[in-house]
Amino acid sequence: MKHSLVLFLLLALVLGGPNDTVDQLRVAFTNVPFADQVTAAAVTIEEGEVPDWISGSLARHACGVFGETGTESDMLNRVTHIFDCIEMGQSYSFHKGEVTFTSQFYDTNMVDIWLRYKENMNQSSVWWGTVYSEQNRTAMEKEGGNMNKPGKPGAVPAVSWWKAGDDVIAMSEWPSGHKVDVHKMEALGGYQYQDNDWLGGFGNQHSPAHEQYGEDGKIWSSAAVHKYDGDIGKNKRVVYTMDPVTQKREVVGEWTFADTNLTLCTGKGEVYPDHNGRLRQIHSLQITENYVVVAEPSYMYDPCVRKFWNDSQAGWEQEFKYEEGVHGNVTIMSKNGTVVATLDVPPMMITHVLGSYEDKETAELHFDVLQYDDARAYTYFTYIDVILNGEEHPDNMTQVTRYTVNMDTWKLKEIRDLVKTPMKNSFEFSNINPAYQSKPYKYGYMTKNVFKLHGAVLKLNVEDGSIIEKELPNGLFPSEPIFVPHPNATHEDDGVVLMSGIDGGREKGFLMVYNATTMDVVLHATAPKLTLFGVHSKFFPFNVGCNETDCTPEETTPSNTASADFRMSFLTSLAIVILRVI
């Protein structure tokens, strides 16, 4: 019995388990001290080794400040929704079998204000306009001039990363962004688009955070736009490209919605009565070889906020409403700008996507998405008090859904769930091998239980519905899995999956590297400093997203080996002790 107990303890030490705590999770919603910024700092190897072929940086949109989470105060002293933190940039850089960690606050007016209050939101409150979080109007009015002070950006967009030629742009849900050196995490200024009135007098209301890429290097995206003459609004969605060479955005195609008449708005909180004129929120779009697919959910903009704005509410809290009785729209447009299909689908919400492609043999177009029955992924489950309430996500919170369209008739043929493995469906942050964008593919990678306890990384086989699940060790909370192909890859899943996140036990960041074929752990490393939750990540080689010609690290003495040797020596010694006991 004693021998079995010792072996069990050894396995628990090495493999971890599902015993996360809410206190560990709360660490992910605290603050990174300004003094804890580092550049190219060594990590500690907990298990495995760094594949020597990986070269580049895993860039993270990270939160740096949430405020005084978990404390009581008569004043609003913390951010209440995960989308509204003070942002920072973090990266893990891989070079010749070594990994280093960089964590930097951007040089912004927002950070300057935080420092002026000595990094204490008990003194400053929440002084910026938010998407969903509670706001302090008094603090906003006091610091509004400082947030808009010339010479620095107020903040840097912190949702997604776009590759524009050799530049990397930090983006949000707006069709403009900020250049960042993703290897040193330095903000380089607003991206200089070389176009003026590219929307022809229309104004943007919303754009997807996630982009697609053409074979010519152009970026494909979309924008929901409107133009008002008094109370009458013209509304449409455009699909556009951005050319990294010319730095110009160009509208390729569009479709219109009904005109809106603001005289029909009756007061604060009263939604516009005709859903046909309401623009819709999309977080992602998809492309195939010849088509652009825009799936617009039932999460809809309310134009009445133009007339009856409520200062007591956050932006999206009042601007967007999920309409459970309004069907979703799927528009398929050829890349020459011709709309070939407008499909009516059941009410839904889509956040992220997997693959999309045309099957020439069956004359079918498939597109795969992460789908919800409502908008609570934004409007409920990402509020920090809900995250920390200790409750699990509901069963079947997310569906991995395939839509199949007949390309002869352009009619919807089928909507089906791709997951066949019985499990509690709480999936997010889906990605595939980027080389298989617009092509038939087999594998997708996702996070399970994001922003909750018992996080895991998943590999989904979209052909047979099977899943490989790898739960993280105790106290580790995951973010987005990123596939990086081997430079000499011979098959779709020949590469690694990189995942960073929060080690709530050590109060530091962590990095996991998985063999993308088997999902076995190749590397588990711990950052020297704390990381918090954020949103999206992406991997970039050293010659992309660099303020110099190339950000490849200079040759240095290996920094990670000693930690790995110590761990192996420790485990070897422990094994010897156990054998002696046995």
What would you note in describing this structure?
Helices cover 13% and strands 39% of the residues. The chain has nine helices and 34 strands. Strands 2, 29, 30, 31, 32 and 33 form a six-stranded antiparallel β-sheet that branches. A hairpin with a 4-residue loop joins strand 19 and strand 20. Helix 1 packs antiparallel against helix 9. The relative contact order is 0.16. Mean pLDDT is 93; it is low at 1-17 and 561-582.
Tell me, rounded to a whole number, the average pLDDT.
93
Structure annotation, total helices: 9
Query: What share of residues are in beta strands?
Result: 35-45%
> What low-confidence regions span 5 or more consecutive residues with pLDDT below 50?
1-17, 561-582
* Quaternary structure classification: single chain
Largest sheet: 6 strands, antiparallel
- In total, the number of strands is 34
Helix-residue proportion = 10-25%
Structural class, from helix and strand content?
mainly beta
Question: Based on CA inertia axes, which overall geometry fits?
Answer: globular
CA-to-CA gap between the ends? Answer: 10 Å
User: What is the CA-atom radius of gyration, in angstroms?
Assistant: 24 Å
